[in-house]
Amino acid sequence: MTAELRNVSKVFTDPRRGKGLVALKDVSLRVEEGEFLCLVGASGCGKSTTLNLLAGFEAPSQGEVTYQGERVRGPSPDRGVVFQEFSLYPWMSVLQNVMFSLQGKERQEDRAMEQLRLVGLEDFANSRPNDLSGGMRQRVAIARTLAMGPGLLLMDEPFGSLDEQTRRKLDNEVLKLWQRERKTVVFVTHNIDEALMLGTRVVLMSPSPGRIEKEWRIGLPWPRDLSSPEIVGMKAEIISRLQACPCANGAPVSMLGFDEEGT
């Protein structure tokens, strides 16, 4: 077992009102070694909060978060995070951005170039981030995170701001990286198709407050056919459960942060 939330609740308090927002309540989730776990759910269901707890950016109000059997007490290079925003330093070259995560380690330039080769950007090592496309900048961000050598890779809607074609391309690249490196991945997405295409397990979260609604283990090989009966059936059930959420009140899926195509 790699990471676990045990009976975790998280309350965010508004000091101006003296009231608390219950983001998660009694959530238990185990992330197994080497799996690609996708978290899906409507906006406000606690997906990013769950990721931040695993990263150590937030502490649980109740319960316990562990990684490799040890309680998570803060951020660590063992748990790398890729955000939706690229968060690159524009005054640094691509190579320098990746090397930044290797401060204090030996062979910084060699190790950084190795990661750039993994994401296919070795020819852009001396470029500045602003000279790259959005998809290329996100690949730099992934390379920088991988350079730290994390055992657990946490990805918070990393391709949500990209166009559909670029998103699909990067999905395939991340899948190839995972198949080659076999790191444990927790991937947050609003895109149902993306989750079903990538995940070894898909976990649906429900809001008010955030909790685990249901999970699906997917044993299908890659590349996956999104029109296959198994995938179509899982997608239909996910959409049905989303529409039945307490927040939905009969609203269409598009109003919950999804559309009928799963985005």
What descriptive keywords fit this protein?
263 residues; four-stranded antiparallel beta sheet; 25% strand; alpha/beta; six-stranded mixed beta sheet
How does this structure look, described?
By secondary structure, the chain is an alpha/beta fold. It has a domain at 86-149. The protein is built from 7 helices and 10 strands. The chain has helices at residues 47-55, 94-100, 108-118, 134-147, 164-181, 192-198, 229-243; strands spanning 3-14, 19-31, 36-41, 62-67, 70-71, 79-82, 152-156, 184-188, 201-206, 211-217. The strands form 2 sheets. The protein has a 6-stranded mixed beta sheet, with helices on both faces. Strands 2-1-4-5 form a 4-stranded antiparallel beta sheet. A hairpin with a 2-residue loop joins β4 and β5 (70-71). It starts with a strand and ends in a 20-residue tail after the last helix. 39% of the residues are buried. Mean pLDDT is 88; it is low at 248-263.
Oligomer: single chain
What count of helical segments does DSSP give? 7
Q: Work out the strand percent.
A: 25-35%
Rg (CA only) = 19 Å
Note the gap between the termini: 31 Å
Query: Helix content range of the residues, please?
Result: 25-40%
Please report the total strand number as a whole number.
10
The biggest beta sheet is recorded as: 6 strands, mixed
Per the principal axes of the C-alpha atoms, what is the gross shape? Answer: globular
Q: What is the topology, as strand order, of the major beta sheet?
A: 6-7-8-3-9-10
Average of the residue pLDDT scores: 88
The ordered string of helix (H) and strand (E) elements is EEEHEEEHHHEHEHEEH
Structural class: alpha/beta
